Amino acid sequence: QLMESGGGLVQPGGSLKLSCHASGFAFSAINMNWIRQRPGKELEWVAGIGPNERVWYTGSVQGRYFISRDNAKSMLYLELENLEVSDTAIYYCALPGVGWPNRGQGTQVTVSS
How confident is the model at residue 107 (pLDDT cuts 50, 70, 90)? Predict the structure, then answer.
């Protein structure tokens, strides 16, 4: 099970930190991901982190988003900085898989002035 939290309404240029609590599987051994769905768009991959904490980002968030994990707490995090209106989306944490079938319920991030 995956459960996200931390979303909200923020002004352009603002910051948020999203959290995801994982349970029911060997969290520390699995690549974890953040994905998002912007209004009217399909799911898109945003960032990933390996068990050894190697990280990957999609180009549009490089330098603004920072993914991390705490294996002892089975927690995944995503820090969002310098937010833009185009970052408005529902953000999900997800296990690897075509179509991202194993994801949480999502947390809404709205960037608006």
Answer: very high
Round to whole Å and give the CA distance between 46 and 104. Answer: 15
- Closest Cα partner for 62 from 50, 46, 51? 46
Torsion-angle region of residue 75: left (phi > 0), alpha (psi -120 to 50) or beta?
Answer: beta
Give every strand in the sheet of 75-80, ordered side by side. Answer: 2-5, 16-22, 75-80, 65-70
- pLDDT confidence of 12, banded at 50, 70, 90? very high
Question: What's the mean pLDDT when you consider all of the chain?
Answer: 97
The whole-number pLDDT of residue 110 equals: 98
111: Cα separation from own chain's centroid: 15
Q: How far is CA 56 from CA 7, 33, 62, 67, in A?
A: 21, 9, 9, 8
Q: Who's near 30: CB < 8 A, 6+ residues apart? A: 51, 95, 96
Q: Which of 37, 34, 15 is nearest to 84 (CA)?
A: 15
